[in-house]
Amino acid sequence: MKNVKAAAAHDRYLFDSGTDLGGAQLNYLSALLDGTTRSVLGSLTLAERPRCLEIGAGNGSVARMLAEEFSGQVMAVDLDVDHLEPSPGVEVDRYDIRDGVPAGPYDLIHTRFVLVHLPSRREIFARLIDALSPGGWLVIADMGFAGELLTAPEESDHQLWRKYYHAASRIVGPAAGHDYGWAEQVEREMYAAGLIDIAAEHLVPLARGGGPWTRYHSNLSLQAEEAFLSAGLSRAELTRFRAMLADPRFRARFFTVTYTVGQKPPR
Fold first, then answer.
1. Is residue 98 in a domain?
2. In terms of pTM, does the model score above 0.85?
3. Which end of the chain is more exposed for a tag (fewer CB within 10 A), N or C?
């Protein structure tokens, strides 16, 4: 299955997961979120040996989790599979979810930090529901902006924080096709689509200087450095921003994470 088309400029994901920095980003996300993902998935009543679709599979950590802990047969798809290897119970394919959904039906479809970036998210959402088997579960984890600086090493860092977030809103904001209000709309969309047993869990991670969330965001700033330079930040300001994130006196909330689950009614 090779079904990847060139994306329009407004429909591209800024952070290239095929690079070394991209691989580090995927590993950070696994370390930060896989525990919550495991808890959410473990709360579902799944069919025996469920057929699963993992969209935006990244480094494959969730796909392996589904295969190993839930005895699932997993189709793991992503635009870039450089960090994604087949493993027992996991089939890997390079695939663009904007072009359609790999042939189902599926007992579980999971996607994390994907739909928020895609302008066609509602069309994709509808196709995902169509691809569920009766009684199958859809699990969507997505992010929203928080952008709250709590403490900073220097008073001038507050101004730098505002400048950074202003630039970030231009780079990955609505004009670029991203919707950071989507995550909190998914529950309503699931109700409107006729799903049942819907539940949502809303997290607001606290990023501490030198901790895993700040290392993740520092890594993102490295990946998007040229975009930030084009948006008005200097290299010196980006260097200071990363130093601020590494300082143990730093505390902030960068974004929220919302997990929403819903079940297609059984026949």
1. yes
2. yes
3. C
